[in-house]
Every structure is written in structure tokens, then in C-alpha cells.
Design a protein that fits this description.
The complex is a heterodimer.
Chain A lengths: L1 H33 L8 H11 L4 H23 L8 H39 L2 H7 L4 H39 L4 H11 L2 H27 L10 H31 L1
Chain B lengths: L11 E12 L2 E12 L3 E6 L5 H8 L7 E6 L2 E2 L5 H8 L2 E4 L11 H12 L4 H14 L15 H13 L5 E5 L7 H18 L2 E6 L2 H7 L2 E6 L2 E7 H5 L4 H7 L10 H9 L5
Parallel strand pairs in B: 3-8, 3-9, 6-7, 7-8
Antiparallel strand pairs in B: 1-2, 1-4, 4-5, 9-10
The chains are: A mainly alpha, B alpha/beta.
């Protein structure tokens, strides 16, 4: 009898703990967002986080943007040349970067670089009682730790996306104009004709949504690591929480990408 | 000579009534009550797993007991909201076992943090006040070091400096001597006594170190498996007839051998529910 029921029992347990975690993360997010109304804002810490999440990611984002722009141009050239419409290359590169690849790849790089580090840092602060110590000093960790990171991701991710797009467009320019001898005027004119404000707005909406998802999941997983079932403390707990955060954030970004596209197209 | 019992100074700064607590099905604390008077050094003693850290977390409002009530500086923790709790915590200091310094900030920045957050003092005053506390802990050379560069004893002292920088009425200290060599540990004991004598601070210490407890305490509470085994002055504890207290005093292995049948059951136990 037990054997028949055991898959059901474990299914039930898994669902309950997943729901519990979702609930905890939801409350966490609500409390973190509510800090908008709590003064004083820690501007110093926001700047410090902006430097970490934003400024220090610029090079990586730019290099990635260049290669993505180049490969997109390469792939589209191969397709468009068969239809004799290489003059649309600029439009193809611009569209795919601004609407899709820019926000998504930037988000994935930010998760890998800053998101994982943020989760590990907060997880270590949790295991080392540093968060309890803040509580005991009457310093609200949501205001002091979480909110500045939320703001930093919210500002940095859209800006990094913009850097990615610009560098990507020039990467595409290099392959189209310098390698395949597409006319420079055609490259930029077709881009200007087809990439409209709507497309830019879609890209910005995506990067804002992604930034919130990344900040929420990466800080939350670290902050709540002591509550998650089966979580072990110490180094292993932090590494598990970080892996979880990276996986969950990446999947959420890709899922949200589909949802936003479906709504806005 | 400072007062040796709660009766001599009847201003109670910390009171706990019937605290019980559990992790899942496992009971951690069972009906624990205590009362700490102003200016007293109160030591909570117990082996690892006796529930003493859980008790400490309840006393400072970091977690709520499943039943019972804590009254801290006259405020009942179960009835106050978060803002009131934070207001209350400005008057208590907590020194954590490993120091719990924020690892992205230097030692002096850590000590300054409570002053920067809760006072409108200017930078130079904050720096001076923090340096005074660091000097008190003989950490004057370490102010610009990062927490990762400190030894265990220095971390504890830096944590203590941060805990007392606001001159709290009540100081909690988790395991002051755990993991330290005897000399450093004795120095910390002296510091605790000094804080009480110089600043009339009430101190609650959680420890498993018998020697240190006997040296600093006015009163000792002995916890075992979440229950109070003994509570009294140092003399009362050392003269206690309770076998568990005696075994602790003489560092004997606790006799916990189950009956033959229970032991056989334990050996043949399987994981099936």
C-alpha cells in the first residue's frame, strides 16, 4: 500500500514545498518593493551596487554584443543573399538585436556575472549571521541590503542592454559593410526604416522586466536560503542557493521574454 | 562587589515566561522562564544542542517562540510592531559568535554603522566614538583591516565593539569563548566584567565554557535538552546536587544508555515510515 502511494506522497510534498517557497518569495518581493516609501534611501550603497552590477559588466556586455551582432549579420547575409535582398541586412540585425537578442542575452550575462555573485554574497551574509546582526542593530536588511540591489539592477540592466544593442549594431555593420560589401547607406537606412519606436519600447519593457526578475530571484534565494527545505547551511547551502538562483532566474527571463513578446506583438 | 542575585536590584530588564519552541516535530525549548535584573551578568549554559542559541534568538526577538512571552526593557515582544522592535533594539547590543561583521566593510566602518544609521552625529564624532570602543577592545591597530583579515578572537572583539558602540542598556553575547585559546578567552571574560562595572551594562552571555561561566556570572542558568536544569548564583550551581549539573561541573560523559531492548530496536531500525 505504501509503495503505491509513495509517488503521490512525494509529489504532494514537492508541490507543497514549491508553493511555500513561491509564497515566501512573493512576500519577500512585496516587502522589498515597499522600501520605496521608506526613508532614508541608501544612495551610497545604490551607487556601490550600480558600479558592481553595471560599470563592471560593460566590457563583457560590449564584447558579447559585438560577437552577437557579427554572427547575426553573418547568418542573415547567408539567407538574404539567396533572395537578393541583402539591402535588408541592417533591418534584420537591428530588429533581432533590439527586440530579442539584446535584452535576453544581456539579462543572461548579468545573471551569470552579477546575479550569481549577489546571491552568494547575501547567502554568506545569512549563514554568517550578518543579516541577523543588521536586524539586531535595528538596521532593516530589506532597506539596507535588498532595496539598493533592486534599484541597481533596475537601472543597470536596461543601460547594459542599450550598450549591447549599440555595439551589436556596429558588429553587424562590420560584417555587412566591411566584409560583405553591403552599402553602408543601405545598412543604416533599412534599419532606420524598419526598427521603430514600438520595437525600442518592447526592448526596454523586456529589459526592465528582466532586471526586476533577476534582482528578485538572486537576492531572494540568498536571503531566504535558511528557510528552504532541504537546504543545508554553510558553503554547500550557499552554492546550492546560487545554482538555484541562476537556473530559476534564467528560466524566468526566457519565460517572461515569451510572455512580453506575445503581449506586445 | 556587584550584586549577586536578582533580589538585591529588583529592576528587571529582561523577563521570559514559559518559552517553548520547536523545529517541526522536535521540541527545542520546554517551558523556559528567566528573569534578569539590571546590572547583572546572567549566563545561560548548556551543551551544544541544549537549545541555548534558540533561547537567545527568542530573547532578542530574532525568532518567535511557539508559546510564552519575552519582555525586553519593559516591552512585550509579541505585542509590538517592527518599528517598535527596531526602536527597542537601539538599546540592546548583540555580539554574535563569529563577530558577524559585514564583510564588505572595514572594521571601523562596521563599528560606525549603528551610529551612522541611528544618530545625526558628524563624521568626526562618529569616528572618535568608534575608535574609543575599538581601543577598549585593544583593536586600535585593526581599524582599517577587513573582517577576512582578522583572527577569530579579533572578530569576536570587533563584534563586541560594534555591539556596545551605542552604549546599550543590555548586551547579549553568544559564545564569547568558543574556539578561542585560553588567554584570549580570559581577556574577553575580563572585557565583559569591565563593561558591566564601568558602564553598568546588563549582560546576558550564552556559553558552553564552564570556567568562563563560573568566572563572570552573577547567576547561571543551566539548560539541558531545552529544559532548565538549574538556575541560581554561582555558589548555588556549584553546590547543586542535580546529577546533570554535577556531571557538567566534573566534565563527565552524560549517562544516556538506553535499555537493551530499545538499543536493539535502534540498531534494527529501518527508514520506512
Amino acid at each position: 500500500m505504501m509503495d503505491v502511494l509513495s509517488p503521490l506522497i512525494s509529489l504532494g510534498r514537492t508541490s507543497i514545498s514549491a508553493l511555500q517557497e513561491l509564497g515566501r518569495m512573493g512576500i519577500f518581493f512585496a516587502v522589498a518593493v515597499r522600501q520605496i516609501f521608506v526613508r532614508p534611501w541608501e544612495f551610497g550603497l545604490i551607487l556601490q551596487q550600480l558600479r558592481f552590477v553595471g560599470a563592471r559588466s560593460v566590457i563583457v556586455i560590449a564584447v558579447a554584443g559585438a560577437f552577437v551582432g557579427m554572427v547575426v549579420a553573418l547568418q542573415f547575409y547567408d539567407v538574404l543573399v539567396r533572395f537578393g535582398s541583402v539591402s535588408l541586412l541592417g533591418s534584420a540585425v537591428g530588429w533581432s538585436l533590439v527586440r530579442e537578442l539584446g535584452p535576453v542575452i544581456t539579462a543572461l550575462i548579468v545573471i551569470g556575472r552579477a546575479g550569481s555573485a549577489t546571491c552568494a554574497e547575501i547567502g554568506i551574509m545569512r549563514t554568517d549571521n550578518q543579516i541577523d546582526a543588521l536586524e539586531c542593530m535595528a538596521v532593516d536588511p530589506y532597506r539596507y541590503l535588498i532595496f539598493p540591489r533592486l534599484v541597481a539592477f533596475l537601472i543597470a540592466v536596461p543601460l547594459l542592454t542599450a550598450v549591447f544593442n549599440v555595439v551589436g549594431i556596429f558588429g553587424g555593420w562590420f560584417v555587412s559593410v566591411a566584409v560583405f560589401r553591403v552599402s553602408q547607406g543601405a545598412y543604416f537606412q533599412s534599419m532606420a526604416d524598419t526598427v521603430l519606436l514600438n520595437d525600442l519600447v518592447m526592448g526596454i519593457v523586456k529589459s526592465v522586466v528582466f532586471s526586476v526578475l533577476i534582482a528578485w530571484i538572486c537576492t531572494g534565494k540568498g536571503f531566504l536560503m535558511h528557510l528552504n527545505q532541504g537546504m543545508v547551511f554553510g558553503a554547500e547551502g550557499v552554492s546550492r542557493a546560487t545554482t538555484d538562483a541562476v537556473v530559476a532566474a534564467s528560466i524566468s527571463v526566457l519565460f517572461a521574454d515569451y510572455i512580453v513578446s506575445a503581449i506586445m506583438l | 562587589m556587584p550584586s549577586k542575585s536578582a533580589q538585591e536590584d529588583d529592576t528587571v530588564v529582561l523577563n521570559a515566561e514559559g518559552l517553548s519552541s520547536a523545529y517541526g516535530d522536535r521540541g527545542v525549548l520546554h517551558d523556559v522562564s528567566l528573569s534578569v535584573a539590571k546590572g547583572e551578568i546572567f549566563v545561560i549554559m548548556g551543551a551544544s544542542g541544549s537549545g541555548k542559541t534558540t533561547l537567545l534568538r527568542h530573547l532578542i526577538g530574532l525568532s518567535m517562540p511557539s508559546s510564552g512571552e519575552v519582555t525586553l526593557l519593559g516591552k512585550r515582544l509579541s505585542t509590538i510592531n517592527k518599528d517598535e522592535l527596531y526602536e527597542l533594539r537601539k538599546h540592546i547590543g548583540v555580539a554574535f559568535q563569529g563577530g558577524a561583521l559585514i564583510n564588505s566593510m572595514s572594521v571601523i566602518e562596521n563599528v560606525e554603522l549603528p551610529l551612522r544609521q541611528h544618530t545625526a552625529l558628524d563624521n568626526s564624532t562618529i569616528r572618535i566614538m568608534s575608535r574609543m570602543k575599538l581601543d577598549m577592545m585593544s583593536l586600535d591597530d585593526a581599524e582599517n583591516l577587513m573582517p577576512a583579515q582578522l583572527s577569530g578572537g579579533m572578530l569576536k572583539r570587533a563584534g563586541l565593539a560594534r555591539a556596545v558602540v551605542m552604549d546599550p542598556h543590555l548586551l547579549f553575547f553568544d559564545e564569547p569563548s568558543a574556539g578561542l585559546d585560553p588567554v584570549t578567552s580570559a581577556e574577553l571574560d575580563e572585557l565583559i566584567i569591565g563593561l558591566r562595572n564601568a558602564l553598568r551594562m546588563t549582560v546576558v552571555v550564552v556559553t558552553h565554557e564552564l570556567e568562563s561561566a563560573l568566572k563572570i556570572a552573577d547567576r547561571i542558568m543551566v539548560l539541558d535538552e531545552g529544559r532548565i536544569v538549574a538556575l541560581g548564583t554561582v555558589d548555588e550551581i556549584t553546590q547543586s546536587a542535580d546529577p546533570r549539573v554535577q556531571s557538567m561541573l566534573h566534565r563527565q560523559v552524560r549517562a544516556r544508555r538506553p535499555g537493551d531492548e530499545a538499543y536493539l530496536d535502534h540498531l534494527t531500525e529501518t527508514d520506512e515510515p
